[in-house]
Write a structure and sequence with these properties.
Order of helices and strands of chain A: EEEEEEEEEEEE
Strand content of chain A: 35-45%
Number of strands of chain B: 11
Strand order of the largest sheet of chain A: 2-12-9-5-6
Largest sheet of chain A: 5 strands, mixed
Helix content of chain B: under 10%
Oligomer: heterodimer
Number of helices of chain A: 0
Largest interface: A-B, 24 and 26 residues
Chain lengths: 110, 117
Amino acid sequence: AQRVTQPEKLLSVFKGAPVELKCNYSYSGSPELFWYVQYSRQRLQLLLRHISRESIKGFTADLNKGETSFHLKKPFAQEEDSAMYYCAPEKSQAGTALIFGKGTTLSVSS
Amino acid sequence: ETGVTQTPRHLVMGMTNKKSLKCEQHLGHNAMYWYKQSAKKPLELMFVYNFKEQTENNSVPSRFSPECPNSSHLFLHLHTLQPEDSALYLCASSQEGRFGSGANVLTFGAGSRLTVL
């Protein structure tokens, strides 16, 4: 079965420390990979897509087909990065919608 | 108003009530979705509508009944719900190809917080 795994429920770091939010997927074919973010009292929103190869708010995510991973990274965390992060590399059975991971809460403290 | 609008923002209902959640998108998208967000299962896909046709029902109980009268509006009709159905119900929209071959870049609404007593 297709599956996405975010192994960490909570990740706590200090401001300025590097951050890596892990995501592993089990997917047949070529997945389209996304990270979505939900800041406190805000809507869930797209952070970045792997096909765009962008750096958004200092975050990057590289597809590693060998490890079937799509980890989200930032070299220096900021307090405003504190949020819930969802990995979404998986399509539903009919292939028409995204299936999300369980999410990782990132807490950045000073 | 722009984006995806959901009403009501909060709803409290008894197990025998019938109520509806409404979602409206002003983005010109052709696909709309219902997701359920709860503490136990953070983001569960419920229904997908693509070009007003339901393309997925993710094994959702029949006490939840979706309706998509046009590409801008999506409803979730609720009846005889259970307390475990209490959750945040999120609507989203995207611009997709007819057979789901689009980018799946979702725009979410703020959600409707449902409490079933």
